[in-house]
Predict the 3D structure of the following.
Amino acid sequence: MILPVGSINRHAAGLAAATVGWILAVTSMGLVAWRVWHMDSSPGFPSGLACVGMWRVCIYHHVPVGRVPFCHPYSHHDAFLPPDILAAQHLLLAASILGLLGKAAVLLALRNVFTGILQENAAFGPFVTSGILYLLASACLSATVVLNYASVTREQRISFPPSFYLPDRPDAQEVGNASHLATVAALLLLLSGVSSFSHRYPRDRQVHPDMSEL
């Protein structure tokens, strides 16, 4: 009993897409440009821009030699963080873990196929499990992107500590590249999840006698 070559190629392509999506998800989690704040010169706050990420904020002030970044890290223990950033931190961590577990499930299923373990549960079960994990990871990333976009459109305030030398609201803000990267990662994981559900267990061919021989 052999799986169709097309089915194996489809799952291999899904694994490749999931790998790229997972790498992009982890990369976006570490990037700082989720929200880009543009600040004009005002009393107490020099002009420049700030990139607000999920784990740190980097301020770029205008100086004669260019822009010099000053970054301040934070975590979910900091009370000044708004609820959407706190939620996004957990969602991004969940997406990275779920995506990694989904990859492990696909590798297990493909291992069972190539080593000749072709019982239905040995391949079908891990493929379905990986599909569920990929869809959950994609949902976590999508929720993070939506939360970030809603915060930008509402021009949400963030009461940073005075030591950050940042206003609680910029003159203008926009969605950063990290959000776009997470969107691509969510789409790739979504496609990989759908691909995992396309697995079909091959049935043995039944041999019927030729009517001419009867």
Helices lie at 5-30, 83-114, 120-153, 177-196.
